[in-house]
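[stage:ingest] chain + small molecule (iron/sulfur cluster)
[stage:ingest] validated
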Amino acid sequence: MSDVLVPLGKRTETAGPRPVPAPGAPRVYVETYGCQMNVADSDLIGSVLADAGYATCDRAEDAEILVVNTCAVREKAEERVTARAAELGALKRKKPGTVLAIVGCMAEHLKESLIERAPAVDVIAGPDSYRRLPELLAAARQVHAAPVIDVRLDKAETYEGLSGAVGGDGVSGFVTIQRGCDKFCTFCVVPFTRGRERGTPPREVLRQVRELAAAGYREVVLLGQTVNSYVWDETSFAGLLRAVCRVEGIERVRFTSPYPVDFTADVIAAIAEEPKICKYVHLPVQSGSDVVLERMKRGYTVADYRAIVHALRAAIPEIAFSTDILTGFSGETEDDHAQTLALMTELRFDSAFMFAYSERDLTFAAKKLTDDVPEQIKKRRLTEIIALQERVSGEVFAAHVGRRERVLVHGPSKRDPAQLMGRTDGFKSVILPAGVGTVGELVDVTITRATMATLFAGPAT
Ligand code: SF4
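[stage:predict] done
[stage:export] tokens:
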């Protein structure tokens, strides 16, 4: 998944009463790295702190509390946070009394040793410690000596009753339906940083979805590390999807990220039958080689993966796919790499998140396998993978020119705020000309132009 950096900004009030921050209340600035789960967690953190009477702000310079919500999936993500923590440390020195909290997966991964990489840190808190953040911050503000550390993993914590579903762009909101992961892929640190898999009870998921709808959101994205393995008593993932579709006011339902072999026939039927479920699936493949998939302990072969894609395409011909590719994993040969390129050519994903492998300690791969593909070879393979995907994406996006598409308008375009940006059902960004659509509206447009990552709609006709 792409790295994102999202300041916690304007918030939509939830249905529940929330204390108005007292004049002079400490201001919190939250910065987010990593996946959508972290974006949703930052909303949750904002919610917890707002309930505790903190005010929020959009700039680190204005804040007394700096919260950095981190990712540990790749070494690069941790390096970015280390560099950012140094900048925020400099800010702290200019404004004594400021507290720096580093939270999330990197905090859980490095625990006390994070202090060596970020000496300015005052609070280290893992992904299951957010309910206790007000106390941790209060302790840090009192003491100002050794950092306050809380990295307990809690296999029962689903943050039930908290309102995380209030951030985002006001049009599309996240609801975390599952936390943690039990799959233990050999390259992945997530089961160690987020703990064991547990689902959020369906009544709580539906409460949060209704809360989003009441706040004017039109789309909900259900989040989980392996979202389609969700189960709660008698409720399956397919059952939950269908129940979410019944919530009035919500027009689109998405989910991410599914685990390929947990894609069951009832989920495929729900996507095909429920008009509100978007016809788009992010289906991480990681490699096109059975040998590498086995070494990654992904739990499927290329044939299994291909069969899932074919089943989805047979039931929903217009379905769009994205994927994750991890190149240069331990023992990957030129032939394995060629098989990945061949699978990408065959399946023609609409888009992909592509990375070179970096070893993460704690994982099986770090302990038992050798990170033996030289860096320059990883780099070259990644370049080839990206070039192929760019060509395929260019062709897939170009094929949309001339088509009518229903677009949900999300907000102003980043490049030109006079224009609006929306998304198709298949999760493709569309730039709308001025005067077409309003934020939160579903509009039907004709695509007139495409790049490999963006569609452009013509004027209203
Ligand atoms: S399914 Fe595998 S890659 Fe995904 S979070 Fe779990 S262990 Fe990591």
